[in-house]
Specification:
Blueprint lengths: L8 E3 L2 E3 L6 E5 L7 H14 L3 E5 L6 H10 L4 E4 L4 H9 L4 E3 L8 H14 L3 E6 L5 H7 L4 H16 L6 E6 L3 H14 L5 E2 L7 H17 L5 E2 L7 H14 L8 E4 L10 H11 L8 E5 L5 H4 L5 E5 L3 E6 L2 E7 L3 H11 L1
Parallel strand pairs: 3-4, 3-10, 4-5, 5-6, 6-7, 7-8, 9-10, 11-12, 12-13
Antiparallel strand pairs: 1-2, 13-14, 14-15
Bound molecules: iron/sulfur cluster.
Length: 349
């Protein structure tokens, strides 16, 4: 897949941009000063496949959580800061790996310089996080209401504030809860500058609707080669965001995120339990790292042909079924042996 060329920005040893693999991130929702809860959730996120974790730093009471997590879990941490530049300085001092702050919101240029200098000295990048719901009033006045162009104007304004102090270690996000506006903003941004883009549809909703909105927004952009790191926002346990992110990445064909299961919708020709089999195959492949396509099809007549692009698959018949590889039938088996034969052959791939 062709990806837009962006600069490489390194966050705690993880390279973002420049065609590097898409990085999945999430954010803690544990109480901001609670070290133990923060450590536990960070471990769970890491275990699930999250590579960068953000935490809210609303006040100085949250600063010790950075060191607390770092001493227990090896994963880059991002401090999410609004308005107070002193919190940014304290987070850098505490060893955070990235700051999410909008320099236009922290006061005069002296403060911006202090944050830029501290981040430069520590090698800490800054993510500018534009949100359609909190655009600067001058930008809103110009555009009348939040728009994709207004969001990019806002990003350029914040970028300019940092560049004025020769700070270019920047990642940018442009989030809206409106999927179309989010997509338009990122597309325009990718034509306007080459800083890496952190993709996300904000306030996307509960697990089902949030996944749908994120799949459309993030997935379409990724399919166009836009985006370097993603966060799926769900009103749910953040661990659920990681599986959702991985599924979006798999669905757009990004390598490195494990098997994709292709399964037919079933019809009047179906003679085996395709629904049960497809779920079982998906469950057994959880944790499998192979970038393969696995097909579960309902009939021998159409199945192998329709799933020709699959690396391996099964197709059900009347009491019997077929095992096929790349559309070519390799064996005919009793129905009850199909699943185990498929799993064994996947192991050998
Ligand atoms: Fe029907 Fe066969 Fe197509 Fe499944 S693969 S939907 S059973 S025709």
């Amino acid at each position: 897949m062709d990806r837009k060329n962006t600069r490489i920005i390194t966050v705690g040893g993880i390279a973002i941009g420049g065609g590097n693999p898409i990085v999945i991130q999430s954010m803690l929702n544990t109480p901001s000063g609670d070290i133990l809860a923060g450590v536990a959730q960070t471990s769970a996120l890491k275990e699930a496949g999250c590579r960068i974790v953000r935490l809210a730093i609303p006040d100085m009471g949250a600063i010790p959580v950075i060191a607390g997590i770092k001493s227990e879990v090896q994963i880059p941490l991002v401090a999410d800061i609004h308005f107070d530049y002193r919190l940014a300085l304290a987070a850098v001092e505490a060893g955070v790996d990235k700051i999410r702050i909008n320099p236009g919101n922290i006061g005069d240029s002296d403060r911006v310089k202090k944050v830029a200098d501290a981040c430069r000295l520590a090698g800490v990048p800054i993510r500018i996080g534009v949100n359609a719901g909190s655009l600067e009033k001058e930008i809103l006045a110009k555009h009348g209401h939040p728009t994709a162009t207004g969001m990019v104007d806002s990003a350029l304004f914040h970028i300019g504030l940092l560049e004025r102090f020769d700070f270019e270690n920047i990642i940018v996000s442009l989030k809206s809860s409106d999927v179309k506006m989010t997509m338009d903003a990122y597309r325009l941004a990718s034509e306007s500058f080459d800083y890496p883009l952190h993709l996300g549809v904000t306030e996307a909703g509960t697990e089902r609707m949030g996944l749908i909105k994120s799949s459309i927004g993030i997935g379409s952009l990724l399919a166009d080669g836009i985006g370097d790191t993603i966060r799926v926002t769900l009103t749910a346990d953040p661990v659920a965001e990681i599986a959702a992110a991985r599924d979006i990445l798999k669905a757009v064909g990004m390598p490195g995120f494990g098997p994709v299961v292709i399964s037919c919708p079933t019809c009047g020709r179906t003679k085996i339990d395709v629904i049960g089999l497809a779920h079982e195959v998906e469950k057994r492949l959880e944790g499998c790292k192979k970038d393969i396509k696995v097909a579960v099809m309902g009939c021998a007549v159409n199945g192998p042909g329709e799933a020709r692009e699959a690396d391996i698959g099964i197709a059900g018949g009347d009491g019997k079924g077929l095992l096929f590889k790349k559309g070519v039938i390799v064996s005919s088996l009793p129905e009850k042996e199909l699943l185990e034969a498929l799993m064994k052959n996947i192991e050998e791939l």
